Amino acid sequence: MATGVNIIDVDKEKFQLEDRLELEAEDDHTAHQISNDPWYQVGFILTTAVNSAYVLGYSGSIMVPLGWIAGTTGLVLAAAISLYANVLLGRLHELGGKRHIRYRDLAGHIYGRKMYALTWSLQYVNLFMINTGYIILAGQALKAIYILYRDDHVLKLPYCIAIAGIVCAMFAFGIPHLSALRIWLGVSTFLGLIYIITASVLSLRDGINAPVRDYSIPGTHASKIFSTIGAVANLVFAYNTGMLPEIQATVRPPVIKNMEKALWLQFTIGGLPLYAVTFMGYWAYGSSTSTYLLNSVDGPVWVKLMANVAVFLQTVIALHIFASPMYEYLDTEYGRAKGNSFSFHNFGFRVLVRGGYLTINTLVAALLPFLGDFMSLTGALSTIPLTFVLANHMYLVVKKNKLPALRKAWHWLNVMGFSCLAVAAAVAALRLIIVDSRTYHLFADL
After folding, report:
1. Phi/psi of residue 444, nearest 5 degrees
2. Fewest CB within a 10 Å sphere: which of 49, 56, 177, 338?
3. How many other CB atoms sit within 10 Å of the CB of residue 436?
4. Residue 442 is assigned to a structural domain of this protein
C-alpha cells in the first residue's frame, strides 16, 4: 500500500515537473526587447505610473475618507509595504536559473498551469480596467478644457472619451514596445510636474485665502466604514502596477540589483510629487476636495488650460505602460515579424490589433464613465492579490525551510491580512456600484 502511494506521489511530481517545463518552453520567446534598459529608465517607468493623473484624485479618494492622521500614516505605511512586496517579487525574477519575464511565467513556474492561467486572467483584467480608467481621465481632461471656454454641454464626456481613445491608439501605433518609450519618459515626467505643480500652487493660494476648512470625515457611520475600506484599497492602488515582472524584463543585468535601484527611485524621489499634491489639495479644500483636484482649484484660465493639457498628454503615455503586457502578448503570439518595427507588416499589425484593443477600452470607458466603482472592485479582486497575497506566498513556497520562523509568520500574516482586505474591499466596491447605479446611466455626461 505504501509503495502504491509512493508511486502516485512520484507520478504527481513528474506530471507537475513536465507541466512547468512545458510552460517554460512556451514562454521562452518574446517579440519585445529584453535586458535592454538601464535601471534609471525602468525607475522612470515606475515613477511615471505612480505620478500619473490618478494622483489628482488622491486628496478626495484617500484623504477625505481617512482624515489627516489615518491618511498620512496610510500613505507612508502603504509605500513601505508596497516597496517590500515589490522587492520580494523582484528577487524571484531569476528563479531556477531562468528569467521569468511575465507575471504568469513566474506563477506557472512555482505553482503549475492552473495558477499560470489564473494569474494571467487576474492581471489582464486589472490592466484592462486601468487602461480604461486612463481613457476616462484623458476624456475628463478634454471636457475640463472645453468647460474653461464654453459650458454649454455641446461637447459631452463620451465624445471627449472617443477623442482620447483615438489619440491613445495613434501613440500606440508609433511605440512598438516598452523600451522604445525612452525620451517619452522624460516628456511624461515634465508633463506630470506641470499638472502637479499647478494643482499644488493653486491649492496653496486657495488655502491661504480660504476660511477655516472642515476636515471632518463626511457620511453616516455605515458609509464611513465602507469609504474607509475603499480608501485603504486606493492606498494599495496608488503605488503598484500589477506588472512588475514585465517591467523588470526590460532592465539590464544584474537584473535583481538594478530592479531594486529602480524601486528605491520610485518609492523615494518618485513618491514626493504624489505626497505634495495629495496633502496640499486636502489642506486647501478639506472634506469638500474634488476627486479631480483641478476641478477644485481657482486660477487663470490659461494656467488651468496648461494643466489639463498636460494631464491629457501624460495620460496617453502612462496608458501605454499598462497596455504593454497585452501588446507583448499579441505581438509575440500573432503578429510581429522579425526586422524593422516600422515595416509595413509590423506597423499594419499594430494598427489593426492595438487599434481593436483600444477601441474596446474606449467603448467601455464611454459606456461606463463612472468606472471608478468597477475599478475598486477590480483592484480588490486582482491588484491586492497579485501585489501582496501572491508575492508573499510565492516567496514562502520558494524559500520553504530556509526562512526562520519569525519571517515565515510575517509572510503568512501578509497573506492572510491582505486576503481579508481584498474580500472587504470587494464588498465595499459592490456596495458602491449598487448605490451609484441608481444615480448614473450609460454614456453619462458627468
Report:
1. -70, 145
2. 338
3. 13
4. no
C-alpha Rg value of the chain to the nearest Å: 22
Question: Which residue range is the domain that position 338 belongs to?
Answer: 31-436
What are the residues whose beta carbons fall under 8 Å from the beta carbon of 236, sequence distance 6 or more?
A: 78, 82, 379, 383, 384, 387, 388, 421
**H or E element at residue 57:** none
CATH number for the domain that contains residue 340: 1.10.4160.10
Higher pLDDT, 392 or 125: 392
Place of cell 505581438: 331
User: Which residues, including other chains, have CB under 8 Å from residue 105's CB and lie 6 or more apart?
Assistant: 23, 24, 27, 116, 245
- Matching residue, cell 454614456: 443
DSSP H or E run through 32: none
Global pTM reads: 0.87
Q: Percent helix, strand, coil in the chain (nearest 5)?
A: 80, 0, 20
Contact 327, 172 (CB under 8 A): yes
Sign of CA dihedral 278, 222, 382, 439: negative
Alpha-carbon span 80 to 60, nearest angstrom:
22
Nearest to 245, CA basis, from 49, 386, 402, 418:
386
Per-residue pLDDT tens digits for 180-238: 898 999 999 999 999 999 999 999 999 998 888 999 999 888 888 888 888 888 888 88
Residue 304 counted as domain residue: yes
- 443 lies in a domain? no
For the cut 80, the answer to whether the pLDDT of residue 352 exceeds it is yes
Residue 85 contacts residue 277 (beta carbons within 8 Å): no
Domain count, the chain: 1
Task: Work out the angle at residue 435's Cα, subtended by the Cα atoms of residues 430 and 436, and round it to the nearest 5 degrees.
Answer: 100
In this prediction, residue 337 carries a pLDDT of 57
Is the CB of residue 157 less than 8 Å from the CB of residue 446? yes
Query: CA 247 to CA 324: how far, in whole Å?
Result: 9
Is the pLDDT score of 130 beyond 80?
yes
> Looking at the domain assignment, is residue 5 inside a domain?
no
pLDDT, tens digit, 9 for 90 and up, residues 430-441: 888 788 777 777
**How far is 169 from 320, CA to CA, in rounded Å?**
9
Backbone angles phi and psi of 276, in degrees to 5: -60, -50
Reply yes or no on whether the pLDDT at 20 is more than 70.
no
Beta strands in 11-65 (DSSP E): none
For residue 108, give the DSSP letter: H
